[in-house]
Amino acid sequence: xxxxxxxxxxxxxxxxxxxxxxxxxxxxxxxxxxxxxxxxxxxxxxxxxxxxxxxxxxxxxxxxxxxxxxxxxxxxxxxxxxxxxxxxxxxxxxxxxxxxxxxxxxxxxxxxxxxxxxxxxxxxxxxxxxxxxxxxxxxxxxxxxxxxxxxxxxxxxxxxxxxxxxxxxxxxxxxxxxxxxxxxxxxxxxxxxxxxxxxxxxxxxxxxxxxxxxxxxxxxxxxxxxxxxxxxxxxxxxxxxxxxxxxxxxxxxxxxxxxxxxxxxxxxxxxxxxxxxxxxxxxxxxxxxxxxxxxxxxxxxxxxxxxxxxxxxxxxxxxxxxxxxxxxxxxxxxxxxxxxxxxxxxxxxxxxxxxxxxxxxxxxxxxxxxxxxxxxxxxxxxxxxxxxxxxxxxxxxxxxxxxxxxxxxxxxxxxxxxxxxxxxxxxxxxxxxxxxxxxxxxxxxxxxxxxxxxxxxxxxxxxxxxxxxxxxxxxxxxxxxxxxxxxxxxxxxxxxxxxxxxxxxxxxxxxxxxxxxxxxxxxxxxxxxxxxxxxxxxxxxxxxxxxxxxxxxxxxxxxxxxxxxxxxxxxxxxxxxxxxxxxxxxxxxxxxxxxxxxxxxxxxxxxxxxxxxxxxxxxxxxxxxxxxxxxxxxxxxxxxxxxxxxxxxxxxxxxxxxxxxxxxxxxxxxxxxxxxxxxxxxxxxxxxxxxxxxxxxxxxxxxxxxxxxxxxxxxxxxxxxxxxxxxxxxxxxxxxxxxxxxxxxxxxxxxxxxxxxxxxxxxxxxxxxxxxxxxxxxxxxxxxxxxxxxxxxxxxxxxxxxxxxxxxxxx
Length: 811
Hints:
The protein is mainly alpha-helical.
């Protein structure tokens, strides 16, 4: 208790029972004494009052049925005092500015400082009046405890302290005599606005006033909520919305998306801090929603597309922090609208970048060009300390086409790495964003019809021996990345065809850098596509292993049956495993010098296998032969077809030549193979034949003679077949025709497999199921499926039902 309890006594104080009023002490006098005491309390003179005495006055008035007089009399005294507080403490401190000027900035400098000081002075007056009033009410409540218990509760009336709070609301905060309410709300809003504009305010004062509003409740008929919720918060949110709506427009006009997002982030943090420190945390959800609705939701596309600073520039410059901020803020937009806009913008950006990558890889290979991989020479030099030299690949259309193909894959991988980093570092690995990124990559990768070929070429470049040494780790990393791109391909069957061709060349030419890496790649493809996809690839490895084992057995056979004039090493290939261009029947008349060795191997093979037919293929074979020129002899490593052609000149006299028709008649090689072979011998780096007339193109009218004057510093020279690693337009059309033909069979097999299981099926369900089952290999068109269904009906595998809307399987 702040008031005095009368004279101090030694020992335990004893409270005497209240005396009954007598005629000498009428109720009127009792009320007068009690009213004077209440005024003394309100005037801060309670130290001279006796708690016991004045408690007894209130007790007697209630006891003798004068509770209503006491209750209403105290209310009147409180009102009287509150009016006095308003006139003496609050009204003189009214701010001269009168409140906020709209939703914009309030101005800076001296004006802002003066406004802040005026507002602080007024709010302190409110706070002082509140503390004065509540302090008095606590003392009044103590001496009127019996009234609260014996009268207020019994008659369903508010306790006297609560009455004091209600009267403070009615006569101070919501006074009808003075515009205190208007000034209070305006001043609070003005202080908030000043701080938003960067000025300094006294937060503790604002906090104390908002606490007052939080402790006062409006009448039940008006909602019964706090004054803060009913009077201040709606106006605060309204002004905030107006302010941030204008600020968004002003800031966006500056044209810097990153700067704008930083400001939004700062505003969100500031407002959250503001609600914690001097407003109410209950305001925070609505305030944050308001900020998002004004600063972000209407401007999502503007931010993303802002020239010179939007999403594209952020990605270009790898601004991870800005992208993370963009993602975090866009997540706050309701109904996933922010993330949806971000995903759409990301997809468009990636597709545009992918389009540029596709346009940069449109170099065509010439119809007859030097294979970059094969156009290498190596040998042991004699004299001048040259131990080993390599020829630099020529810049040819094929080289350009291959470089373009490899560059396309590398550019796509770099782009994927870039967005993978952004996804993990900026977008927190968001699965939905990842889906959009993957969809964009799938879209532009499959927009390039040569993607399957390019990807297979890239793998080929990484798996074969070359001038660029690669560690096993580097090869493994490259293969792992290519599998990611492989998943995006829709025409996986076309990739399979190219991959089989490239693998066959690596195996037959012994160019694989590592058998382990080759097998790891096949294992990765099997994990992605299943056993059927890699069955033939694994069969190719089996053939090579069996061929190596057969070579040892053949040598043992020769030891028993006599040697042959040449060292022969034969790879026996199973036709069903190897790609058609490899095992296709190629006519070639082998010269007499090779016949004995071939016949010996044929006898050896027939002795070990019965019922098998061996067909000799020279299109992918190689040979080592010593050739004597005028200056010196050289060991040439060349294709089997080149050896067949070169041996024709063994008995041709010096100065004589052979015509193209003569060579064709003697070798029986197809024109395409013969032209490439003659180009490699007469038109490439090492011209062991001379073409008449000179030139890089071979024509049927050309003649050829042995170049006796050929010379080179290298003892061993590698002359590989002229060919293009990258398909030209004609070859690509032929490949597409073969793929289309194979797809027809796959579609028909799928239809029969489904119908055999289902027996009867509707047209739409059948098409949907076929498309679904084949989607892992390629995406069949609806028209193609319909044609294959018609074909099966014609061959009586299926029939239409009576309603013509379904099909029935015919066993």
